[in-house]
């Protein structure tokens, strides 16, 4: 008998799950049932699906599977931040990271979309790694699945373990478009994770044509990694700016906002690097640049990594930069570093992780790093 490759139902969008059931001669409503089992109750095998007939369960068993990504390690920081290292399929031992950051009533999951990144921003450790491969939809939505399951059995009526998702882990989400869109649709779908579209955010360094595509497909919130108030500096820090300069990027942002069904803002991310983009005149220049855009600004003090060549600014300088923008009327937040003790801060993802032991067990024991 030839070995057929089973379809992994974990990564199928609602539409693709319907198509799958139709392709095997089953009714549409089966897709809803199975989707709830997988994404709301965390089912890993078909036996658990008690409202699905035995015959269908064994048929599904033969041709499909529910397979989450392989978790290499899970760490919990003193401040509650959780971090997972996930090994992707394909045999290269390629890993990505997922981080969950609790904050009062919120718990924000930072999700990766690629192993490495091709866009080579000068201050980003993922960029330094180069591009390895795209994550599959199951590997992307699987990060949400794993994070929720780490709290125990999934309970659709229990407290929400993940309230927000930001596509700010490794990789450029718009360079892995279809799998990212399918995953975000699942995050917001009522029969899956049911998150608010205001709480699912895609962050991009500015792949302009894909921003126009994105609004045709979904209405997630958008964050733009700007990092510079003019093209001259941005060309240096974010090389994709040479293809899609700031004016074109801001035009795409306006288009995105205008085509959303509700009134929202864009989040502008600005990583502050000492002596590079953090002086007062640059703050003023930024204030002028963004004056016509409905936006909030999030300042991220640079997170150092070995041989980066950049330094983070002093708190004083960061506050000054913030004040100039705030005085001009912007809402400006400063991202505080979380999960320092487990290297979970932005731009520190995976870094120098190598799993030399090639452990094969799926879920390695929960490791309390502070014990
Ligand atoms: N590729 C996407 C999303 C992943 S990066 C993007 O660039 O938007 C998520 C955020 O972390 C981006 O704003 C990125 O510029 C920022 N970042 C990357 N490296 C960093 C570092 N070392 N310190 C602080 N922020 C960093
Ligand atoms: Fe890629 Fe984003 Fe890093 Fe730039 S900042 S290299 S786009 S992951």
Automatic annotation (TrEMBL):
The enzyme class is transferase
Q: What gene is this protein translated from?
A: rlmN
Q: Radical SAM core domain: from which residue to which, for each copy? A: 103-341
Cofactor binding notes: Binds 1 [4Fe-4S] cluster. The cluster is coordinated with 3 cysteines and an exchangeable S-adenosyl-L-methionine.
**What is the protein name stated in its UniProt record?**
Dual-specificity RNA methyltransferase RlmN
User: Which key words are in the record?
Assistant: 4Fe-4S, Cytoplasm, Disulfide bond, Iron, Iron-sulfur, Metal-binding, Methyltransferase, rRNA processing, S-adenosyl-L-methionine, Transferase, tRNA processing
Q: Which residues bind [4Fe-4S] cluster?
A: 117, 121, 124
Task: Give the protein's cofactors.
Answer: [4Fe-4S] cluster
Any one GO molecular function term: methyltransferase activity
């Amino acid at each position: 008998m030839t070995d057929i490759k089973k379809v992994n139902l974990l990564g199928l969008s609602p539409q693709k799950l319907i198509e799958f059931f139709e392709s095997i001669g089953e009714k549409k409503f089966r897709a809803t049932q199975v989707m709830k089992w997988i994404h709301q109750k965390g089912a890993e095998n078909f036996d658990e699906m008690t409202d699905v007939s035995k015959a269908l369960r064994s048929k599904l068993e033969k041709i499909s599977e529910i397979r989450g990504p392989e978790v290499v390690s899970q760490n919990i920081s003193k401040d509650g931040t959780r971090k997972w290292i996930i090994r992707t399929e394909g045999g290269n031992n390629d890993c990505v990271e997922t981080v969950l950051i609790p904050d009062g009533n919120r718990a924000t999951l930072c999700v990766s979309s690629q192993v490495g990144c091709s866009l080579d921003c000068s201050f980003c450790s993922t960029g330094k790694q180069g591009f390895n491969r795209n994550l599959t939809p199951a590997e992307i939505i699987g990060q949400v699945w794993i994070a929720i399951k780490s709290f125990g059995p999934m309970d659709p009526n229990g407290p929400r373990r993940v309230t927000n998702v930001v596509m700010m882990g490794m990789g450029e989400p718009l360079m892995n478009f279809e799998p990212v869109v399918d995953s975000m649709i699942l995050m917001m779908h009522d029969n899956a994770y049911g998150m608010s579209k205001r709480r699912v955010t895609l962050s991009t360094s500015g792949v302009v044509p894909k921003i126009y595509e994105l609004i045709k497909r979904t209405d997630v919130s958008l964050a733009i990694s700007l990092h510079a108030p003019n093209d001259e500096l941005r060309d240096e820090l974010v090389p994709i700016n040479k293809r899609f300069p700031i004016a074109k990027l801001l035009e795409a942002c306006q288009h995105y906002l205008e085509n959303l069904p509700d009134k929202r803002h864009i989040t502008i991310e600005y990583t502050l690097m000492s002596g590079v983009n953090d002086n007062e005149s640059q703050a003023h220049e930024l204030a002028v640049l963004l004056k016509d855009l409905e936006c909030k600004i999030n300042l991220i003090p640079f997170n150092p990594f070995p041989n980066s060549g950049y330094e983070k600014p002093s708190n004083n300088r960061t506050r000054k930069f913030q004040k100039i923008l705030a005085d001009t009327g912007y809402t400006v937040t400063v991202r505080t570093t979380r999960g320092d003790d487990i290297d979970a801060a932005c731009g520190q993802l995976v870094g120098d992780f190598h799993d030399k032991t090639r452990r094969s067990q799926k879920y390695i024991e929960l490791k309390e790093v502070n014990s």
